[in-house]
């Protein structure tokens, strides 16, 4: 060990700076270089590394807290949404039941209105048939009466001569005269 430390401390053994050479003795150089680098890193990097790790830890904790808050908020929103869904489903069931009963009431109302309309139409049809029947009967009566009157006039005209015609008129005047005496 003395030779290694002496080689660093004493400059006698070092060759003059004529040329640059690498020391390829791994056992002599690597442990020393590594111990120096590690010592410098530990001494100077300890604070920086601690600050970096503390910042990272704070960011992780902040992220975890934010995630927990978001999770709680999401759970609350989910519960509100589920409550709202149950309420909407109940309202939908109520509307569905009310709708079915409303449809049934409308159906019954429509059937009743249709029956009333059919009954009115039937009455109107019967009245129209009765009116047409009476009108037809009156027309037939009128035609029969006109035909009977024409036959009677034809028969009277063919059977009455002026003498018979004069006697009928006189008899009728006599009847009217007697009727007048009774009324006075």
TrEMBL record:
GO CC entries: chloroplast thylakoid membrane; proton-transporting ATP synthase complex
GO MF, one annotated term: proton-transporting ATP synthase activity, rotational mechanism
Keyword Transmembrane helix annotated: yes
Localization terms from the record: Membrane; Plastid, Chloroplast thylakoid membrane
Miscellaneous field: In plastids the F-type ATPase is also known as CF(1)CF(0).
TM segment ranges: 32-49
Chief location of this protein within or outside the cell: membrane
Name of the protein in its database record: ATP synthase subunit b, chloroplastic
């Amino acid at each position: 060990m003395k030779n290694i430390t002496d080689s660093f401390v004493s400059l006698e053994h070092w060759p003059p700076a004529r040329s640059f050479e690498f020391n390829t003795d791994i056992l002599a150089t690597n442990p020393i270089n590594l111990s120096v680098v590690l010592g410098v890193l530990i001494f100077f990097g300890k604070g920086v590394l601690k600050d970096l790790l503390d910042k990272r830890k704070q960011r992780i904790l902040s992220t975890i807290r934010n995630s927990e808050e978001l999770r709680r908020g999401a759970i609350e929103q989910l519960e509100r949404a589920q409550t709202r869904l149950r309420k909407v489903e109940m309202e939908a069931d109520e509307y569905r039941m009310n709708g079915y009963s409303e449809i049934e009431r409308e159906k019954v109302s429509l059937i009743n209105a249709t029956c009333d309309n059919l009954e009115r139409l039937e009455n109107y049809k019967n009245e129209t048939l009765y009116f047409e029947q009476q009108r037809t009967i009156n027309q037939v009566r009128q035609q029969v009466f006109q035909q009977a009157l024409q036959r009677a006039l034809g028969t009277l005209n063919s059977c009455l001569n002026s003498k018979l015609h004069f006697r009928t008129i006189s008899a009728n005047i006599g009847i009217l005269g007697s009727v007048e005496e009774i009324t006075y």
